[in-house]
Amino acid sequence: MRTIDLDFSPLYRSVIGFDRVAHLLEGMSNNQNTKQGGYPPYNIELLAENQYRITMAVAGFSEDELDIESRENVLVVQGKKQADDTERQYLHQGIAERNFERKFQLADYVKVTGAQMDNGLLHIELEREIPEAMKPRKISISGQRMLEAEAE
Known about the structure:
This protein has helices at about 10-15, 20-30, 145-150; strands spanning about 40-50, 50-55, 65-70, 75-80, 100-105, 110-120, 120-130.
């Protein structure tokens, strides 16, 4: 696999207050889920303007073998298989039964609203809740009359 080194220093010079975003981009370009590989496979869906769903294929895992945690804008999904003492002789083993940890970087104000298992798929529901103070608002323009009234 070919890696590309990106230089984010121009971003640091041209924006103010976005250093956290630059650090996130830098971290994502360095990591690119190399430790995680492609297991387990997942989809990310946009359900509505501020609603998302992550669907992970977790065949072979039960609900009590999965752990979902959201902390500091990172969603961490872990699967830990319980030890199976049954001795088996596989002719072909195509179903992965290994432990995993998958991390998703969440944007500001995105929170997990629920999770459910359905036919070997783990669905994690997310929603962005922007605080009222952060939503766009109309600013009225006051003219010369406002300045004259203040002077009196």
